[in-house]
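[audit] Reproducing an earlier prediction to check determinism. Same input, same settings, fresh worker. If the C-alpha coordinates differ from the archived copy the diff job will pick it up downstream; this log only records the rerun itself.
[audit] input (199 residues):
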Amino acid sequence: RRAGLITKVEALEGQAMVLPGATVTEGQLLISGVSETEHIGARFVHSMGAVWARTWYELSVSVPLQITQPAAGSRSHSRWALDIGKHRIKFYGKGSITGANCDKITDYKPLTLPGGLRLPVTLVVERTCVYDTRPAERSAEQARQAGEENLLPQLQSLLPEGSRVDETHFAAARQGDTLLVTLRAVCTEQIGRPVGLEN
Protein backbone atom coordinates (compact mmCIF):
# COMPACT_ATOMS: atom_id res chain seq x y z
CA ARG A 1 0.00 0.00 0.00
CA ARG A 2 2.89 2.37 0.70
CA ALA A 3 6.69 2.49 0.54
CA GLY A 4 8.57 2.07 3.79
CA LEU A 5 11.26 0.36 5.85
CA ILE A 6 10.00 -3.01 7.15
CA THR A 7 10.06 -3.34 10.95
CA LYS A 8 7.88 -6.42 11.55
CA VAL A 9 6.39 -9.24 9.45
CA GLU A 10 3.51 -11.41 10.69
CA ALA A 11 2.82 -14.07 8.02
CA LEU A 12 -0.11 -16.07 9.43
CA GLU A 13 -0.65 -17.94 6.16
CA GLY A 14 1.47 -17.95 3.03
CA GLN A 15 5.13 -17.13 2.51
CA ALA A 16 6.77 -13.89 3.66
CA MET A 17 8.60 -12.26 0.75
CA VAL A 18 10.30 -9.54 2.81
CA LEU A 19 12.23 -9.38 6.08
CA PRO A 20 12.61 -6.67 8.73
CA GLY A 21 15.18 -4.10 7.62
CA ALA A 22 14.20 -4.30 3.94
CA THR A 23 13.03 -1.23 2.05
CA VAL A 24 9.92 -1.82 -0.05
CA THR A 25 8.08 0.22 -2.67
CA GLU A 26 4.38 0.72 -3.25
CA GLY A 27 2.87 -2.29 -5.03
CA GLN A 28 5.58 -4.74 -3.96
CA LEU A 29 4.50 -8.28 -2.93
CA LEU A 30 4.91 -8.76 0.82
CA ILE A 31 3.25 -12.11 1.66
CA SER A 32 2.71 -14.57 -1.18
CA GLY A 33 -0.15 -17.04 -1.44
CA VAL A 34 2.05 -19.31 -3.55
CA SER A 35 4.58 -21.45 -1.70
CA GLU A 36 6.95 -24.03 -3.16
CA THR A 37 6.97 -27.52 -1.61
CA GLU A 38 9.59 -30.20 -2.14
CA HIS A 39 7.20 -32.97 -3.20
CA ILE A 40 4.15 -31.39 -4.87
CA GLY A 41 5.58 -28.19 -6.24
CA ALA A 42 3.61 -24.96 -5.97
CA ARG A 43 0.86 -24.79 -3.34
CA PHE A 44 -1.78 -22.05 -3.37
CA VAL A 45 -3.15 -20.66 -0.11
CA HIS A 46 -5.06 -17.58 0.95
CA SER A 47 -2.21 -15.51 2.33
CA MET A 48 -2.91 -13.69 5.59
CA GLY A 49 -0.84 -11.49 7.82
CA ALA A 50 0.40 -8.00 8.54
CA VAL A 51 3.55 -6.14 7.58
CA TRP A 52 4.60 -3.15 9.65
CA ALA A 53 6.93 -0.51 8.33
CA ARG A 54 8.41 2.87 9.11
CA THR A 55 6.95 5.43 6.69
CA TRP A 56 7.57 9.08 5.89
CA TYR A 57 5.08 11.86 5.14
CA GLU A 58 5.45 15.45 3.97
CA LEU A 59 2.36 17.69 4.05
CA SER A 60 2.06 21.44 3.47
CA VAL A 61 -0.60 24.11 3.91
CA SER A 62 -0.64 27.82 3.02
CA VAL A 63 -1.94 29.97 5.88
CA PRO A 64 -3.06 33.55 5.04
CA LEU A 65 -1.43 36.26 7.14
CA GLN A 66 -4.19 38.76 6.35
CA ILE A 67 -7.37 37.94 8.32
CA THR A 68 -10.66 39.61 9.21
CA GLN A 69 -11.51 40.22 12.86
CA PRO A 70 -14.72 41.41 14.52
CA ALA A 71 -14.56 45.12 15.30
CA ALA A 72 -15.81 46.71 18.49
CA GLY A 73 -19.56 47.19 18.63
CA SER A 74 -22.40 45.12 17.28
CA ARG A 75 -26.11 45.40 16.58
CA SER A 76 -28.71 42.86 17.61
CA HIS A 77 -32.44 42.39 17.54
CA SER A 78 -34.90 39.67 18.46
CA ARG A 79 -38.12 38.43 16.91
CA TRP A 80 -40.72 35.97 18.08
CA ALA A 81 -43.03 33.36 16.65
CA LEU A 82 -45.36 30.61 17.86
CA ASP A 83 -45.25 27.06 16.51
CA ILE A 84 -48.67 25.44 16.88
CA GLY A 85 -48.39 21.92 15.60
CA LYS A 86 -46.86 22.24 12.13
CA HIS A 87 -47.97 25.85 11.66
CA ARG A 88 -45.97 28.94 12.58
CA ILE A 89 -47.48 32.29 13.56
CA LYS A 90 -44.91 35.07 13.06
CA PHE A 91 -44.93 38.27 15.08
CA TYR A 92 -42.66 40.06 12.61
CA GLY A 93 -42.64 41.13 9.00
CA LYS A 94 -40.85 39.62 6.05
CA GLY A 95 -37.10 39.73 5.62
CA SER A 96 -34.18 38.91 7.85
CA ILE A 97 -30.57 39.89 8.37
CA THR A 98 -28.16 37.39 6.93
CA GLY A 99 -24.56 37.44 5.79
CA ALA A 100 -21.03 36.46 6.67
CA ASN A 101 -20.89 38.94 9.58
CA CYS A 102 -24.12 37.80 11.16
CA ASP A 103 -24.81 35.30 13.96
CA LYS A 104 -28.29 33.94 14.52
CA ILE A 105 -29.37 31.99 17.61
CA THR A 106 -32.80 30.36 17.79
CA ASP A 107 -34.32 29.20 21.09
CA TYR A 108 -37.35 26.89 21.23
CA LYS A 109 -39.35 27.12 24.46
CA PRO A 110 -42.21 24.59 24.74
CA LEU A 111 -45.18 25.89 26.73
CA THR A 112 -46.44 23.79 29.63
CA LEU A 113 -49.37 23.98 32.04
CA PRO A 114 -48.98 23.85 35.80
CA GLY A 115 -48.24 20.24 36.68
CA GLY A 116 -45.91 19.73 33.72
CA LEU A 117 -48.48 19.02 30.98
CA ARG A 118 -46.86 20.10 27.73
CA LEU A 119 -48.94 21.97 25.18
CA PRO A 120 -48.53 21.56 21.40
CA VAL A 121 -47.31 25.16 21.34
CA THR A 122 -43.69 26.32 21.20
CA LEU A 123 -42.40 29.87 21.58
CA VAL A 124 -39.63 30.57 19.07
CA VAL A 125 -37.19 33.37 19.91
CA GLU A 126 -34.74 34.32 17.15
CA ARG A 127 -31.84 36.59 18.12
CA THR A 128 -29.71 38.07 15.37
CA CYS A 129 -26.41 39.82 16.03
CA VAL A 130 -24.61 41.77 13.31
CA TYR A 131 -21.02 42.77 13.91
CA ASP A 132 -18.57 44.93 11.98
CA THR A 133 -15.21 43.59 10.86
CA ARG A 134 -11.76 45.03 10.32
CA PRO A 135 -8.70 43.71 8.46
CA ALA A 136 -5.83 42.51 10.60
CA GLU A 137 -2.50 40.74 10.18
CA ARG A 138 -1.62 37.83 12.39
CA SER A 139 1.93 37.11 13.39
CA ALA A 140 4.03 34.43 11.75
CA GLU A 141 3.90 32.46 15.00
CA GLN A 142 0.08 32.57 15.05
CA ALA A 143 -0.05 31.50 11.41
CA ARG A 144 2.44 28.71 12.07
CA GLN A 145 0.33 27.44 14.97
CA ALA A 146 -2.80 27.50 12.80
CA GLY A 147 -0.96 25.53 10.12
CA GLU A 148 0.25 22.94 12.61
CA GLU A 149 -3.28 22.52 13.98
CA ASN A 150 -4.47 21.94 10.40
CA LEU A 151 -1.74 19.50 9.35
CA LEU A 152 -1.78 17.12 12.31
CA PRO A 153 -5.42 15.99 11.73
CA GLN A 154 -4.61 15.65 8.01
CA LEU A 155 -1.79 13.28 8.87
CA GLN A 156 -3.98 11.22 11.20
CA SER A 157 -6.63 10.89 8.47
CA LEU A 158 -4.05 9.31 6.14
CA LEU A 159 -2.94 6.66 8.63
CA PRO A 160 -4.76 3.34 9.04
CA GLU A 161 -6.12 2.34 12.45
CA GLY A 162 -3.44 1.17 14.86
CA SER A 163 -0.70 3.36 13.36
CA ARG A 164 1.74 5.42 15.41
CA VAL A 165 3.28 8.83 14.77
CA ASP A 166 6.90 8.56 15.91
CA GLU A 167 8.37 11.95 14.96
CA THR A 168 7.06 15.28 13.69
CA HIS A 169 9.04 18.26 12.42
CA PHE A 170 7.54 21.57 11.27
CA ALA A 171 9.02 24.25 9.05
CA ALA A 172 7.57 27.56 7.88
CA ALA A 173 8.43 30.00 5.09
CA ARG A 174 6.72 33.25 4.19
CA GLN A 175 5.43 33.51 0.61
CA GLY A 176 3.93 36.94 0.01
CA ASP A 177 0.79 37.27 2.12
CA THR A 178 0.83 33.63 3.21
CA LEU A 179 2.96 31.41 5.40
CA LEU A 180 3.74 27.97 3.97
CA VAL A 181 3.78 25.49 6.86
CA THR A 182 5.28 22.06 6.17
CA LEU A 183 5.02 18.93 8.29
CA ARG A 184 7.51 16.10 7.95
CA ALA A 185 6.55 13.02 9.94
CA VAL A 186 7.92 9.54 10.59
CA CYS A 187 5.26 6.93 11.34
CA THR A 188 4.90 3.22 11.97
CA GLU A 189 1.96 1.61 10.16
CA GLN A 190 0.67 -1.58 8.63
CA ILE A 191 1.36 -1.22 4.91
CA GLY A 192 0.01 -4.52 3.55
CA ARG A 193 -3.21 -4.77 1.58
CA PRO A 194 -4.90 -7.83 0.05
CA VAL A 195 -4.77 -8.32 -3.72
CA GLY A 196 -6.03 -11.09 -5.99
CA LEU A 197 -3.86 -13.45 -8.02
CA GLU A 198 -3.05 -12.23 -11.50
CA ASN A 199 -3.99 -14.58 -14.32
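[audit] rerun output stored. Observation attached for the diff report: The mean pLDDT is 86.
[audit] end
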